Amino acid sequence: MFKIISSLLLLSFLSTIQAQEIIPFRITKHNNIIVKTLVNDKDSLDLMFQIAMEDASISPDRKRNADHIIFKDEISNGNTIKIGKKKYENIRFFDNELTGHEADGKIGTGIFKGKIFKIDYDNSRFVVYDKMPDLKGYQSVPLLLKNEQLFIPANSIIEKQNVEAYFLLQSGYSGGILYSNEFADGKELDKKLKVTGEKTLKNSSGQSVITKNGILPVLKVGNFVLKDVSAGFFVGELKIQKSSYFGADLLRRYNWIFDAERKKVYIKPSKYFKKTYYKIN
């Protein structure tokens, strides 16, 4: 019994020293991750984690003051961000960028640059590691890093056809899948998916874009299968959606461990895996 207890304590100790830092977060009802920060030792801000960017930004609709972030041509360099006891230096902020609900701005992946990090949805925290942690139960998925953004391959099953495409990890989009115009037009999603709702928007020139919400029968990421996935796409004159999104409602369904080089990510289902899908109004 003593040997068993000693072994468990040793494993717990090794796991603790592997973790360089732990950053708690909260998840909003819109699936966005919110991190409490202190910027330049003065401004207390709730920032939404945006996995699709490296830097940080401030929203024009923020509720809290950001008076100590000094902008020149809507860019502010050399800022500090304190999260818990950890302070990050030389953070760049952009001004006037819209963000998610309940947030004063956004914070990107730059705070994890060159590090292994985990998005632990089970325990509402980020974990940063010096060495790769135990990967039992996780599956490896290749990452494509392009313009500071991360893409993963996934398979959409549409009318029994298996269609692979790369999806941008997009934690600022509260929904599930949002297909690019190229994918939606090429695969005729308007005809092949069950449509559950739509909206028509027009710009000042009278051009229209129709947003449609549908149901994708099967989505496969690695060997993990999600069924009846909420999927959005655009039709109309305006071609505004360049990339397909893997939104926050899908991100929360897994725990994620990203390697330091951003060449691979390791995933396994989280406690949210079988939760009801978020509805885009």
Automatic annotation (TrEMBL):
Top-level taxonomic group: Bacteria
Taxonomy of the source species: Bacteria, Pseudomonadati, Bacteroidota, Flavobacteriia, Flavobacteriales
Secretion signal, residue range per the UniProt entry: 1-19
Protein name: Retropepsin-like domain-containing protein
InterPro entries membership: Peptidase_aspartic_dom_sf
Source organism per UniProt: Chryseobacterium gambrini
Sorted UniProt keywords: Signal
